[in-house]
């Protein structure tokens, strides 16, 4: 596939995103590209690749409680998360943050000038990986105007058993809801939650390895627990915005990466 190939979305895809607030593409990255990201994450956890300033990794809390792994005795099979600037500091993660397959698609949705503002590699280990309850990313990443878009790339086959994403179509048109302590006893140690979202009809977003979900920052979304006995659930999760938006929060470390088009002062 040529690097110059155009990956703009079709009118039908753009319309689906506008109407429903999310868009699934089943094969964005190849299986080999996903393997490269998974290998790189494992090398970071095992200390073979340095974790640059502004990044950290955490083991799954349940794995730590069970004595299966710890910060000083890490194991990629029990990872929780690496973040939040691997799209800047690591060449492999940066390559995919900037790849045209992603940036052309996002440009079709929020315009040609794009900043990547955050990245996470999130794992839900088999049997113990815990889901993130309903939230809106615009609660955490604030800007004016709000052009935030989440890009959730499945690095394993994902479904409702191993913790795929769920969305509430229509919620993308709403303001940011109050985010309160999560209700679930395990989730409350890690996450805030929009409690009212629990009663609302949702759509699961199962995907093959290499598939992606695009969704705006105001979309209410959650992930499930990984209840499978033998399947990991790894994802590369990126957040982008239109480079003309003014970000309210400046991170401690340089984190905003222009991935396409022009920079504008203020962002
Ligand atoms: O991958 C997950 O489990 C949830 C990620 C998510 O919802 C987010 O990063 O906003």
UniProtKB/TrEMBL annotation:
<dbReference type="InterPro" id="IPR008775">
    <property type="entry name" value="Phytyl_CoA_dOase-like"/>
</dbReference>
<dbReference type="Pfam" id="PF05721">
    <property type="entry name" value="PhyH"/>
</dbReference>
<dbReference type="GO" id="GO:0016706">
    <property type="term" value="F:2-oxoglutarate-dependent dioxygenase activity"/>
</dbReference>
<protein>
    <recommendedName>
        <fullName>Phytanoyl-CoA dioxygenase family protein</fullName>
    </recommendedName>
</protein>
<dbReference type="GO" id="GO:0005506">
    <property type="term" value="F:iron ion binding"/>
</dbReference>
């Amino acid at each position: 596939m040529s690097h110059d190939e155009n990956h703009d979305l079709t009118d039908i895809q753009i319309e689906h995103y506008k109407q429903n607030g999310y868009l699934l593409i089943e094969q964005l990255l190849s299986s080999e590209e996903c393997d490269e990201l998974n290998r790189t994450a494992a090398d970071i956890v095992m200390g073979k690749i340095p974790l640059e300033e502004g990044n950290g990794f955490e083991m799954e809390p349940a794995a730590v409680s069970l004595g299966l792994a710890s910060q000083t005795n890490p194991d990629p099979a029990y990872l929780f998360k690496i973040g939040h600037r691997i799209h800047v500091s690591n060449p492999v993660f940066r390559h995919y943050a900037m790849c045209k397959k992603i940036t052309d698609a996002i440009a079709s949705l929020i315009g040609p000038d794009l900043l990547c503002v955050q990245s996470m590699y999130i794992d839900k280990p088999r049997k113990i990986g815990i889901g993130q309850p309903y939230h809106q990313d615009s609660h955490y990443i604030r800007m004016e105007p709000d052009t935030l878009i989440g890009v959730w790339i499945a690095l394993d086959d994902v479904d409702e058993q191993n913790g795929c994403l769920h969305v509430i179509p229509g919620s993308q048109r709403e303001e940011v809801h109050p985010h309160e302590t999560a209700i679930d006893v395990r989730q409350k140690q890690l996450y805030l939650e929009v409690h009212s979202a629990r009663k609302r009809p949702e759509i699961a977003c199962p995907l093959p390895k290499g598939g992606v979900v695009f969704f705006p920052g105001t979309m209410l979304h959650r992930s499930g627990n990984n209840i499978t006995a033998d399947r990991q659930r790894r994802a590369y999760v990126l957040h982008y915005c239109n480079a003309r938006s003014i970000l309210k929060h400046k991170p401690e470390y340089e984190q905003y990466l222009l991935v396409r088009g022009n920079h504008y002062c203020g962002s």
